[in-house]
Amino acid sequence: MTETTTFYIQSKQSRPAVRPVVWVARLYLTLVFPLLLTLIAARLLMTPAFLAFEYNRPGFPADFYGFTREDRLNYAPYAIEYMLNGADISYLGDLTFPNGAPLYNARELIHMVDVKVVTQLAFGVVFVAGLIAVGAITYLGRSTARRAHLRRG
After folding, report:
1. Helix (H) or strand (E) holding 79
2. What are the domain boundaries of the chain?
3. Contact 140, 25 (CB under 8 A)
4. C-beta atoms surrounding 56 within 10 Å
């Protein structure tokens, strides 16, 4: 046996076994981190500030239905607010154009209900997953030995 192989075998034998709870916490953080980042980023995009940034970008394409940039900046926040609040579909269904025509047709309203359900479910999952992640990070960070596991992921 070579010196390197002997050292490797001795160092493997001298390390304590990883406790199952530490292994589960590390695995959970590894798997949930991309989900948390993705959905937190999606939530950050669901703001009037992002709408203003995006719609005022040079080269932003014209609307197929003829909405102006000002129309988009006026009406889009209502859709985002609807997805994030507890209101029923009448929140959007009662919106009208200046000429009195409804802003959304029946098919669009049904679609927005579906979008709201998925959005709120996703953000609920992220909230719970985030709380569990904070618990896992706290657990792994409470001792010097477990902090090394936290650094390794």
Report:
1. helix 69-84
2. 44-136
3. yes
4. 10
Two tokens, residue 142:
């409470």
Other Cβ atoms less than 10 A from the Cβ of 132: the count is: 14
Q: Which of 140, 127, 136 is nearest to 36 (CA)?
A: 127
CB 54 within 8 A of CB 60: yes
d(CA 12, CA 146): 17
And the tokens for 91?
């929140």
pLDDT tens string 125-152: 999 999 999 999 998 888 766 666 666 6
Query: Which distant-in-sequence residues (6+ apart) come within 8 Å of 136 by Cβ?
Result: 25, 28, 29
Rg (CA), the chain: 25
- The encoded tokens of residue 9 equal 């075998």
